[in-house]
Amino acid sequence: MCGIVGYVGAQQAAPLLLEGLARLEHRGYDSAGAAVVGPSGLRVAKLAGRVRDLSEGLPKRFAGKIGIGHTRWATHGPANDVNAHPHTDASGDVAVVHNGIVDNAAVLRQRLADDGVELVSDTDTEVFAHLVARSTADTLEGKVVDALGAVEGTYGLAVVHADFPDRIVVARNGSPLIVGVGEKEMYVASDLAAIVRHTTTVAHLEDGELATVTAGGFTTFRQDLSRSATTATTLDVDPSAYEHVEGDTPRMYVEMLEQPAAVERALRGRLDERFGTAHLGGLNLDARELRAIRRVKLLGCGSAYYVGQMGAALVEELARVPADAEAASEFRYRNPIIEPDTLYVAVSQSGETIDTLLAVEEIRRKGGRVIGLVNVVGSAIARACDGGIYLHAGPEIAVASTKALTNMYVACALLALQLGRVRDLSIADGKRLVTALDELPATIDRVLKLEDDIAEIARELARHDSMFFVGRVRGYPVAREGAQKLKEISYRHAEAYQTSELKHGPLALISLDVPSIAIVPDDELTDRNVAALHEIAARRGPLVVVTHEGVDLAGLDAQRIDVPRLERELDPILLTIPLQLLAFHAAQALGLDVDKPRNLAKSVTVE
Ligand code: F6R
Questions:
Q1: Which residues contact 274 (CB under 8 A, 6 or more apart)?
Q2: Distance (Å, rounded) from C-alpha 537 to C-alpha 527?
Q3: Identical fold, 251-448 and 451-589
Q4: How far is the CA of 155 from the centre of ligand 1 (A)?
Q5: 3-state secondary structure of 507
Q6: pLDDT higher than 80, residue 377
Q7: Which residue among the candidates 2, 301, 385, 412 is catalytic per the annotation?
Q8: Mutate which of 298, 353, 406 to test ligand 1's pocket (most atoms within 8 Å of Cβ)?
Q9: In sequence order, what are the beta bridge partners of 204?
Q10: How many CA atoms lie within 13 A of 415 on its CB side?
Q11: How far is residue 426's CA from residue 439's CA, in Å, rounded to a whole number?
Q12: Does residue 73 have a pLDDT over 90?
């Protein structure tokens, strides 16, 4: 949430900042701004709105070879011009961009006001600029360290100062910050996407670490100004995978269609047909350690939590190990009991979701073992875990997650398979699953081909203000994810419920105006599911049934989406994909910007 970019080198900074900001807009689009240090000192432009609005005039007006920029997702204060970053001190010599939250901002604001400082914005960030300006240290590093000494909270931070025109000082505590190494030029960013066109050689700052970045290189240090040893590494990423031209097909659509290829990448080299198992070297667990696991707990937020629920069911089914999933955002607040023989699994696309990261840290602090199912290589969660499975979904830019979720499910399946095969899962069942996983990309392709029919249903659903998504047992997390996706991008109210629970209350809401989207896999619960749907139909509730070819709906008056079948273990993900298309086309029918849903941003790095 919020994006930071910075540049220092031989080129004009402003165009590079604008380009980086455009690539960061999925991280926040409430406002945008940039500060450049040039021959006429430090100059700042910022406004509520999009990067394209900022672009008009900025490169021409601001000459200078060093600068910082920001896209904002508002935490403190509304999205207006004044609250946009960068924030400056009263003299206009210091500019700061910040991701995170200053917990003691109210105290610091009061203290500064008492000292006669005029605070112009409602933000927590502004205090940094004043604190840096008021420090008596004679280096920019010393001034930033002084300011940080007064601050409690989380930050990814970049500071420029008119009196130190050769450097950017950056700091990290709980919000991502990387330094990118170029040819006689350097970048800083909260997210690789901002700078990947220029460099893939980056250093990830650790929490509590700062860096001085000049055109010639960077040095890292701690808050006591002692040097630290963080170095840059070259990442194995394809910059072209980040390309997406604004105004083209929505990024979410592109990412949905990429799912077969993304799954292929997630499976590559990990399936063992001969022994019907998976090979996951990154787990850092041998067969003996895997056998000793008595429980599996998956932790994630939002859609990653729902996939965690799907994955927990899979682990129980294949490995016969008790497993459940929990919202990572709640986990640490209930003083969880951390068990030595439980395998904790953090599930995250970005690898930067603060709630999931803090859950991981809580587990590790208490001596637990945690692995990560993470998409972004080198991200904070990936680094904080004892081991893990990279998702290999490729960069996911759209705010609404699709291909990364599918690959999370695939990673859960691989984990369940490997865990199962060191326990009681037979080689025959292992091989059956390996074959099914092998066929998954092609089967997803078949699901995606249902798009035209789904789009028609979506256009009809978009006319309703409120709807239910219902499912039971394995279908329930699918319903939760379906409701989530619809809410997120179409702003239609959608509530997920267990089909079995409807008659205990919510059935009262069913009417001609309130449709239900029901998940009805072909399994031992089909008849029970269908019976409950008849109860909805009897109350004139319109029905859309996401089911398998051949399932008999016993004369139910419903629109159906028939999903091809593979093996029952893979049903949840194959039943989820039509719901992505449903949400996408509902939002399109309503003329909404699916890639930038209101109030949201990609990668939630604030609590
Ligand atoms: C929904 C969505 C969010 C994320 C959640 C966790 O489409 O994208 O609910 O799933 O914020 O994000 P990650 O996976 O980055 O930890």
A1: none
A2: 15
A3: yes
A4: 20
A5: helix
A6: yes
A7: 2
A8: 353
A9: 178
A10: 37
A11: 20
A12: no
Ligand 1 neighbour 259 (Cβ under 6 A):
no
Find the farthest-apart pair of alpha carbons in the chain and give their distance in angstroms, rounded.
81
Ligand 1 centroid–CA 302 distance in Å is 5
Any atom of ligand 1 within 6 Å of the Cβ of 301: yes
- Is 526 in contact with 553 (CB distance < 8 Å)? no
Which of 307, 345, 350 is the best mutation target for the ligand 1 pocket, counting ligand atoms within 8 Å of the beta carbon and taking the most? 350
Residue range 149-166: mean pLDDT, rounded: 96
Whole-angstrom Cα distance, residue 169 to residue 148? Answer: 12
* CATH superfamily assigned to domain 251-448: Glucose-6-phosphate isomerase like protein; domain 1 (3.40.50.10490)
Cβ–Cβ < 8 Å for 410, 566: no
Distance CA 58, CA 56 (A): 6
329 lines ligand 1 (CB under 6 A): no
CA-closest candidate to residue 449, choices 577, 298, 285: 577
191 lines ligand 1 (CB under 6 A): no
**What are the backbone angles phi and psi of residue 75, rounded to the nearest 5°?**
-115, -55
How far is it, in rounded angstroms, from Cα 106 to Cα 122?
A: 10
The ranges assigned to domains in the chain are 3-242, 251-448, 451-589
> 451-589 sits in which CATH class?
alpha beta
Task: Find out whether the peptide bond into 578 is cis, omega within 30 degrees of 0.
Answer: no
DSSP structure class, residue 85 = S
Other Cβ atoms less than 10 A from the Cβ of 20: the count is 31
Q: Which residues contact 425 (CB under 8 A, 6 or more apart)?
A: 318, 319, 320, 417
- Report which ligand 1 atom has the smallest distance to the Cα of 350: 15
Provide the CATH topology of domain 3-242. Answer: Glutamine Phosphoribosylpyrophosphate, subunit 1, domain 1 (3.60.20)
Per the document, the length of the chain is 607
**This prediction's pTM:** 0.91
Residue 2 designated active-site: yes
Q: Does ligand 1 come within 6 angstroms of the Cβ of 302? A: yes
Q: Is 115 exposed, middle or buried (0-12, 13-18, 19+ CB in 10 A)?
A: exposed
Encode pLDDT of 449-464 as tens digits: 999 999 999 999 999 9
| 297 flagged as catalytic | no
Q: Measured from the CB, is residue 418 less than 6 Å from ligand 1?
A: no
- State if residue 199 touches ligand 1 by the CB under 6 angstroms criterion: no
pLDDT surpasses 70 at 138: yes
